[in-house]
Amino acid sequence: LAKTTQPISMDSYEGQEVNITCSHNNIATNDYITWYQQFPSQGPRFIIQGYKTKVTNEVASLFIPADRKSSTLSLPRVSLSDTAVYYCLVGDIGMGFYGGATNKLIFGTGTLLAVQP
Amino acid sequence: DAGVTQSPTHLIKTRGQQVTLRCSPKSGHDTVSWYQQALGQGPQFIFQYYEEEERQRGNFPDRFSGHQFPNYSSELNVNALLLGDSALYLCASSLQGEPYQETQYFGPGTRLLVL
């Protein structure tokens, strides 16, 4: 699985757009890029996943350049409730013994985003 | 539609004791994975259960064992507790055959403190 590198922490103010960049130089052809959000003492929550170019949902956008060696999670107009740790994960779908997906997730240390009023 | 539930929410044990943590997967899910999260670190994969068998295992000693029941719920057992086992233990459920990583749903976790 490709190793990821993210900033340890970031600060922002309410209403601003926040971009968190993740480096994954050794990403493999079959690898997807996935971002999770985690609040203190809660389980991680899926935010967004992509393979190339741009993906957008109701929560965030994910930008992936052509070489796929990095990705940027973009959070529009953050609020205080967006203060959390954000994890970038890179990995392939994976195939279990019986041909099903194994869904094993490898987390790094994540980026602590602190949003101030 | 019930999400992933875990019990207990908090637990205090002493060194050398044994502990059992429980997890009920999201409705419709058949696969349960367990993760350990130490303070300030990302979750670390312990193992995954499907069809009542351990499918994958992370870099954890044999003191960590698990079980999955016919109703897909799961238990994590840790024997001979060490101080370093103090952590948030997370359960995640998914459905086999769903190829994308976003289909992992996490529970709220069990906070274990070993004194």
- What is the tally of beta strands of chain A? 9
Shape of chain A: globular
Strand content of chain A: 35-45%
Average pLDDT of chain A, rounded to a whole number, is: 87
Written as H for each helix and E for each strand, in order along the chain, the element string of chain A is: EEEEEEEEE
**Helix-residue proportion of chain B:** under 10%
What is the 3D form of chain B?
A: globular
Q: Main beta sheet of chain B: strand number and arrangement?
A: 7 strands, mixed
**In angstroms, what is the radius of gyration of chain B?**
13 Å
Number of strands of chain B: 11
Describe the fold and architecture.
The complex is a heterodimer of chains A (117) and B (115). With 117 residues, chain A is mainly β. Helices cover 0% and strands 44% of the residues of chain A. Chain A has no helices and 9 strands. Chain A has strands at residues 9-13, 18-23, 32-38, 45-50, 53-56, 61-64, 70-75, 84-91, 111-116. The model of chain A is unreliable at 95-101 (pLDDT under 50). With 115 residues, chain B is mainly β. Chain B has no helices and 11 strands. Chain B starts with a strand and ends with a strand. The mean pLDDT of chain B is 92. The chains are: A mainly beta (117), B mainly beta (115). The interface between A and B is medium-sized, with 27 and 34 residues.
